[in-house]
């Protein structure tokens, strides 16, 4: 497996070359224009535009108006813009601030909903990002989230423990669940060279069936219900709310912030992170320098899985409160796009997780108010990531200057 | 030549240093003992019926009824004996042909079936079981062939899942609008190839990591098809998403063969196309000019370039072709099975196809067998669930995935992917 | 027949003319632009100006296919063979004889291989897998490939880099045979000896420009100074060694590769404090594996490695580094540096978790930067900033970073594999000086090198490896011929005896290769006598 993880592999802000020294201002402008953050913003814009087109062509009214395009172009365009505008304004109202809401509380609630939806994405995304930086393709976020949720949820209703302690124990269980699940892939990769992409994909499916099996066992679900779902987790194990109802923002968001700081420290300021990155960038050189590649591989997967497992725990202890077959939703897969959008950097992943959480929160409102299916969010998200992975494409769309790369000496 | 005389000596010396390969004998022994203890000694009362014939067969073959425990015992003893043989051969550092694990597997499965069918007086419908296995394998086989052609050319294709789904979608829509299932069959490859266009555009032109594009493309296709399904298709399902089924075209004589004839040769055209694709690939990948060039591009693109082969063109063309194959596989979900399109109906089959390709060591024949194995275990899960056995359905469904994990962990010997796969070719 | 070139990034207005049936040597240092030029000629790169004429006809190549059609064949420095293909498939690739449906006519492909192979006595089995062939045979497959397409002009890019002296002699006789049959050969090399042995005419190229024509009668020193642009000292000044105790000992070391082939075979030797032991040999005879086993990247099947009385076998790489081993790997870009990492990070690659760079799990960023700046000063590394990625440095400066890291701490043993591969002359001198300084400080040093010049320049004693075994350990005053024979597997005593008698024909064990070397034996002997002392103005 190749180790070139950064999807775009752009060199960071290019240092000004000697000959370009005089035109400093121009250089600065060039740097801004060719900077990676601008590409991200433009990618989001392009993706939203494409999404808008898709919304338009699938809308019966717009199609109807298009038939009379030449007879009444005005009405076509007004229908077009109304349709797209309504969808996106609903998306925004559902994700950030709802000016149509009846109460002040209700109008700021969407922002906290975005945070709620973003929490598991951030945690799992950090796990994926950490693995990416260490040269491992952890496609197994899904399985790790499921295992984390499964164990955290089970401990959440099966153990009689005092508040807070119970929550911490359950969350720890989630961490261990995710860590073990990813650790399997890590150990197999380190010991036998088994490709982690395939193994983690397989482990995703296995985790899904495992949860499906457990939810049919009454010793596990603690209910007599015939439905494949578990008992509700005890109050003592629930992640407490940070704001009073109707807000759902819970302690998990604080955990997500702490985890982001932890991953930043790990990657940028610790010897362990130095090893991780060295193995990711060049395993041969790392090995020659005395770094045990197999140990690092296992450790990276364990930490990555722990983060994803924590994401699953946050989902079950903070939002869902009970285990169902669909507990993980598509968190594990969305986390991959989150990590990619965040360029595998801790802060970037945090922001990307918030953005995708916002899309999700807004998507629900958009679906219920305008009838635009939430699936459009998947399209927008994937287009964003595709574009971000190919900065030259975005630059050529907007005719931006290419960054001045320092020429390598032969 | 001095170098050649030197070659020979180290090999001869190191022979005795070669460790004994214990892996397989251990697996055989464990499985043999499991069978002996659970299916034989503990066993289950009653009889198990293997139903072979289906109504309307040309030959009427009677059902085979065996006492569950006795059958389990006999078969288990065979298994244990086979395990002993494998230990003997391993100690003498002799290898066994690939027929051995296959035979072992078959005996083990029959032993398991005899046990599973017992007690409840269950009837094991063999023909249904096998037919189900084939049906569940068809998209896997198409998908695995797609992955194989792509990776042999040097492009890793994780987007098989998306290609299957896109194929299923377009096949359903076109067949429904034209009101002809064959029209869907023509449209499906186009959908698969379109996904491949995006894949190669980013992989070849912008050198984006191919695993990333694959994963993202899968999300994109799920999003697109689900969105269109929820808006357009559900608005007017009679027009856009009416069921169309490719008719079965029994092949005379061949389809009259008991059991297998029924399973293999009373199928729709898509299944026959699948046979042709697999056989053609098996021949052309290894023996044709096209295959030689494809493998060169996937193994050592620079070498291919120096003999005037256009590396990126070859890669793009082959990947598009592969995408078309996967699209056909997707058609099996809709027009091939007579179903309307449903959200995310490929349900991860593309990933299993990928696993089948790896398990089959990037060979059409191997991938075919692996895909059949996956299809069979799924069919087995379905069958056992319907007759009610003590084994949980989920655990059986997990089996192919676990087998794949073991396989990539090196249990099936050294698996060597094409050397240059996933590496963009830059002059 | 004329080929003209102009203005190319790595080739600045180069004019080159090759006559039919001549062997034309293109001589230049590593990185002088030889290979680039030939790749343009072969259609792999586009020229940015100039033209190519064949028989006075201008030709335009849009790809290698056109070049082949025009009768140009090329044997690349790194073989362009697919390891999992058979010889017949490799030769057929791109020009496949086909039957119906595009199926390959394998019989035809085999016939072609056998035909050419027997014409030149190549002894190649068309059904052998490329990966199973020794490098010499792979090279012959490359030549068959070119000839099967009726090449009139054959470009050989550094063809002897991977060959033993005897295989080189065989190649030279093959080249003569080809020349007799009217094939023109462009022979790219930086090895002076070979140029003088075979070339009809010589073009010397430096920094992308032609700096002159030379005749095969020029002395090595003349060619060398033309090649590098100034008079060079072919040796590095050093005092005689003052060896102390043998603190590093290897006993009966046997290493087996993944395919269970023995790659290091029952090797034993000592290195004393304050001496340099050079391990000479043709690439691929176990030197790489030996060095990697000492540092712990590979575990031996048998034998012991002891440093300061402690057996290192079974210890991790980290522990061995901790025991005071400094290691400069053979392949710098793969094993020595991490291209994306900053220069300062590359300087702590194997000491990142030790004081003063780290405290507990925390890295001390400011200390790392300070120390890096000191090393930049000490090792004269030319760079912009220590936080730039190391990929922005030239090869020579990258190697200095590696050396600054490995020599920047107290060592008990120093091992360097091919420490100057791919470096310019200035950097080579610098590296050699630092290695000698390390020796003089009392560290036992092991230098693995395939370049005899480097071996002679550094060694106090020379161990020659062949096929995994040490054929003998000899003094630094051993003649090139004796080393050459040893590099082909002749035991030390026989090699010394054979060359001492000054009658090459008497070396019966060495068999046929010596006959060709006899042709230039006189000249070569004279060289070996002078190289150690020669200094040209």
Short précis:
The complex is a heterotrimer of chains A (410), B (427) and C (537). Chain A is mostly helical and 410 residues long.
β content of chain C, as a range? 15-25%
Mean pLDDT level of chain B: 86
List the total number of helices of chain B.
17
Per the principal axes of the C-alpha atoms, what is the gross shape of chain B?
globular
Helix/strand-derived category of chain B reads mainly alpha
SS field, number of helical segments of chain C: 20
Head-to-tail CA distance between termini of chain B? 36 Å
Major sheet description of chain C? 6 strands, mixed
Instruction: State the helical fraction of chain C.
Output: 25-40%
Strand ordering within the main sheet of chain B = 2-1-3
What radius of gyration of chain B results from the CA coordinates?
24 Å
Question: How would the global form of chain C be characterised?
Answer: globular
Largest interface: A-B, 54 and 45 residues
Sheet with the most strands, sense and barrel status of chain B: 3 strands, mixed
Write down the oligomeric state.
heterotrimer
Provide the structure class of chain C.
alpha/beta
Unreliable runs of chain C? 502-537
Q: Compute the number of strand runs of chain B.
A: 5
Tell me what you see in this structure.
The complex is a heterotrimer of chains A (410), B (427) and C (537). Chain A is mainly alpha-helical. Chain A is built from 17 helices and 2 strands. Chain A has helices spanning 24-34, 36-57, 60-67, 73-95, 104-133, 141-158, 165-192, 196-214, 218-221, 252-269, 271-281, 283-288, 293-320, 331-341, 346-370, 375-389, 391-398, and strands at 229-232, 322-324. Chain A has a two-stranded antiparallel ribbon. Chain A is globular and about 70 Å long. In chain A, 55% of the residues are buried. With 427 residues, chain B is mainly alpha-helical. Helix content of chain B is 69%, strand content 4%. Chain B has helices at residues 2-14, 23-42, 68-91, 99-117, 126-152, 160-178, 181-205, 210-235, 237-240, 260-265, 269-287, 289-299, 301-306, 311-331, 349-359, 364-387, 393-411; strands spanning 47-51, 64-67, 123-125, 248-250, 266-268. In chain B, α6 (160-178) packs parallel to α8 (210-235). The two termini of chain B are 36 Å apart. Mean pLDDT of chain B is 86; it is low at 1-15. Chain C is of the alpha/beta class and 537 residues long. In chain C, the strands form 6 sheets. A 6-stranded mixed sheet of chain C has the order 6-7-8-3-9-10, sandwiched between helices. In chain C, strands 16-19-20-13-21-22 form a 6-stranded mixed sheet, sandwiched between helices. In chain C, α6 (165-180) packs across α19. Residues 502-537 of chain C have low confidence and may be disordered. Chains in contact: A-B, A-C, B-C.
């Amino acid at each position: 497996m190749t180790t070139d993880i950064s999807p775009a592999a752009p060199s960071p802000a290019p240092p000004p070359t000697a000959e370009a020294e005089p035109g400093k201002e121009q250089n600065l402008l060039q740097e801004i224009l060719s900077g990676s953050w601008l590409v991200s913003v433009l990618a989001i814009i392009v993706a939203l535009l494409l999404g808008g087109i898709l919304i338009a062509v699938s809308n019966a009214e717009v199609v109807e108006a298009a038939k009379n395009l030449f007879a009444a172009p005005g009405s076509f365009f007004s229908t077009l813009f109304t349709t797209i505008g309504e969808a996106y304004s609903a998306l925004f109202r559902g994700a950030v601030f709802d000016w149509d809401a009846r109460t002040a509380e209700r109008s700021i609630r969407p922002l906290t909903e975005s945070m709620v939806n973003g929490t598991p994405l951030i945690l799992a995304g950090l796990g994926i990002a950490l693995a990416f930086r260490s040269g491992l393709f952890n496609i197994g976020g899904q399985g790790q989230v499921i295992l984390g949720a499964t164990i955290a949820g089970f401990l959440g209703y099966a153990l009689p423990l005092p508040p807070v302690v119970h929550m911490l124990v359950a969350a720890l269980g989630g961490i261990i669940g995710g860590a073990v699940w990813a650790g399997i892939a890590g150990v197999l990769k380190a010991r036998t060279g088994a490709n982690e992409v395939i193994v983690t994909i397989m482990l995703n499916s296995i985790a899904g069936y495992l949860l499906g099996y457990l939810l049919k066992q009454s010793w596990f679900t603690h209910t007599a219900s015939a439905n494949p779902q578990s008992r509700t987790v005890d109050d003592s194990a629930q992640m407490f709310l940070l704001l009073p109802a109707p807000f759902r923002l819970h302690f998990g968001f604080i955990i997500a912030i702490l985890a982001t700081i932890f991953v930043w420290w790990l990657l940028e300021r610790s010897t362990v992170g130095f090893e991780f990155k060295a193995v990711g960038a060049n395993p041969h050189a790392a090995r020659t320098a005395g770094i045990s590649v197999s140990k690092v591989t296992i450790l990276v997967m364990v930490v990555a899985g722990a983060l994803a497992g924590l994401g699953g725990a946050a989902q079950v202890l903070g939002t869902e409160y009970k285990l169902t077959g669909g507990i993980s939703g598509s968190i594990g897969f969305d986390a991959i796009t989150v990590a990619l959008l965040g360029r595998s950097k801790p802060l970037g992943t945090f922001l990307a997780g918030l953005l995708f959480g916002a899309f999700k929160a807004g998507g629900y409102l958009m679906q219920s108010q305008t009838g635009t299916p939430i699936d459009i969010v998947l399209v927008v998200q994937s287009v964003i990531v595709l574009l971000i992975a190919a900065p030259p494409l975005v630059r050529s769309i907007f005719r931006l200057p290419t960054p001045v790369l320092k020429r390598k000496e032969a | 030549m001095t170098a050649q005389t030197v070659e020979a000596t180290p090999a001869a010396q190191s022979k005795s240093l070669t460790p004994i390969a214990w892996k397989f004998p251990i697996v055989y022994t464990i499985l043999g003992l499991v069978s002996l203890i659970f299916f034989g000694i503990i066993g289950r009362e009653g009889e198990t019926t293997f139903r072979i014939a289906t109504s309307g067969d040309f030959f009427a073959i009677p059902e085979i009824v065996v006492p569950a425990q006795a059958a389990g015992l006999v078969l288990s003893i065979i298994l244990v004996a086979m395990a002993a043989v494998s230990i003997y051969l391993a100690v003498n550092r002799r290898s066994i042909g690939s027929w051995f694990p296959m035979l072992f597997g078959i005996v083990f499965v029959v032993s398991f079936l005899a046990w599973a069918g017992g007690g409840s007086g269950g009837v094991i419908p063999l023909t249904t079981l096998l037919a189900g296995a084939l049906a569940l394998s068809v998209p896997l086989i198409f998908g695995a062939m797609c992955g194989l052609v792509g990776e042999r050319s040097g492009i890793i294709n994780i987007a098989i899942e998306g290609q299957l789904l896109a194929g299923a979608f377009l096949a359903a829509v076109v067949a429904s609008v034209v009101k002809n299932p064959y029209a869907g069959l023509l449209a499906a490859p186009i959908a698969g190839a379109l996904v491949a266009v995006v894949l190669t555009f980013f992989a070849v032109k912008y050198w984006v990591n191919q695993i990333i594009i694959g994963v993202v493309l899968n999300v994109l296709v799920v999003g697109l098809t689900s969105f269109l399904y929820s808006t357009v298709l559900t608005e007017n399902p009679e027009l856009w998403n009416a069921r169309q089924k490719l008719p079965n075209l029994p092949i005379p004589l061949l389809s009259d063969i008991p059991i297998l004839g029924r399973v293999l040769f009373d199928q729709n055209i898509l299944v026959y196309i699948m046979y042709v694709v697999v056989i053609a690939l098996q021949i052309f990948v290894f023996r044709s000019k096209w295959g030689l060039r494809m493998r060169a591009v996937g193994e050592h693109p620079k070498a291919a370039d120096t003999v005037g082969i256009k590396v990126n063109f070859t890669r793009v063309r082959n990947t598009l072709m592969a995408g078309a194959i996967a699209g056909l596989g997707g058609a099996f979900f809709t027009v091939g099975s007579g179903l309307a399109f449903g959200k995310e109906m490929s349900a991860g089959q593309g990933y299993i196809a990928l696993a089948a390709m790896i398990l089959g060591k990037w060979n059409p024949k191997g991938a075919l067998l692996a895909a059949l194995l996956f299809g069979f275990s799924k069919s087995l899960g379905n069958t056992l669930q319907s007759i009610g056995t003590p084994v949980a359905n989920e655990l059986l469904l997990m089996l192919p995935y676990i087998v794949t994990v073991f396989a990539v962990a090196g249990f099936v010997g050294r698996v060597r992917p094409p050397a240059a796969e996933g590496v963009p070719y830059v002059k | 027949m004329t080929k003209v070139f102009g203005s190319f990034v790595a080739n600045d207005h180069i004019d080159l003319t090759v006559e039919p049936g001549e062997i034309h040597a293109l001589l230049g240092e590593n990185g002088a632009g030889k290979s680039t030029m030939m790749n343009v000629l072969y259609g792999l790169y586009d020229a940015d100006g100039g033209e190519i004429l064949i028989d006075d006809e201008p030709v335009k190549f849009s790809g290698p296919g056109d070049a082949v059609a025009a009768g140009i064949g090329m044997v690349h420095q790194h073989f362009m063979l697919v390891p999992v293909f058979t010889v017949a498939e490799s030769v057929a690739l791109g020009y496949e004889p086909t039957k119906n449906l595009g199926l390959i006519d394998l019989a035809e492909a085999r016939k072609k291989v056998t035909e050419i192979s027997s014409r030149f006595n190549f002894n190649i089995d068309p059904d052998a897998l490329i990966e199973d062939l020794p490098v010499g045979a792979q090279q012959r497959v490359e030549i068959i490939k070119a000839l099967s397409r009726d090449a009139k002009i054959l470009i050989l890019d550094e063809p002897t880099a991977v060959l033993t002296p005897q295989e080189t002699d065989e190649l030279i006789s093959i080249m003569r045979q080809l020349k007799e049959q009217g094939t023109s050969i462009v022979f790219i090399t930086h090895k002076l000896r070979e140029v003088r042995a075979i070339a009809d005419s010589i073009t010397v190229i430096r920094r992308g420009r032609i700096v002159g024509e030379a005749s095969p009668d020029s002395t090595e020193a003349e060619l060398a100074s033309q090649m590098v642009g100034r008079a060079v000292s072919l040796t590095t000044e050093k005092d005689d060694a003052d060896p102390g105790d043998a603190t590093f000992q290897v006993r009966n070391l046997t290493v087996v590769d993944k395919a269970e082939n023995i790659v290091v075979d029952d090797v034993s030797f000592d290195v004393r404090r304050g001496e340099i032991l050079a391990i000479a040999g043709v690439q691929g005879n176990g030197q790489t594996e030996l060095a990697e086993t000492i540092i712990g990247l590979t575990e031996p099947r048998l034998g012991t490695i002891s440093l300061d009385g402690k057996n290192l076998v079974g210890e991790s790489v980290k522990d061995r580094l901790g025991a005071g081993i400094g290691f400069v790997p053979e392949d710098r870009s793969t094993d020595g540096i991490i291209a994306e990492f900053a220069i300062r990070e590359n300087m702590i690659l194997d000491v990142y978790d030790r004081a003063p760079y780290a405290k507990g799990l925390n890295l001390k960023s400011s200390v790392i930067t300070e120390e890096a700046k000191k090393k930049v000063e000490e090792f004269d590394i030319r760079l912009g900033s220590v936080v730039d990625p190391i990929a922005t440095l030239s090869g020579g400066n990258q190697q200095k970073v590696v050396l600054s890291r490995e020599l920047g701490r107290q060592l008990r043993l120093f091992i360097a594999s091919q420490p100057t591969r791919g470096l310019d002359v200035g950097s080579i001198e610098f590296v050699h000086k630092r290695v000698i300084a390390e020796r003089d400080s009392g560290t036992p040093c092991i230098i693995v090198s395939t370049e005899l010049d480097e071996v002679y320049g550094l060694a106090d004693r020379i161990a020659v490896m062949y096929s995994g075994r040490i054929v003998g350990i000899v003094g630094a005053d051993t003649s090139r011929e004796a080393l050459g024979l040893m590099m082909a597997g002749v035991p030390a005593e026989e090699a010394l005896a054979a060359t001492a008698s000054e009658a090459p024909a008497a070396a019966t064990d060495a068999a046929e290769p010596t006959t060709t070397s006899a042709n230039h034996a006189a000249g070569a002997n004279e060289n070996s006598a002078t190289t150690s002392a020669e200094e040209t103005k």
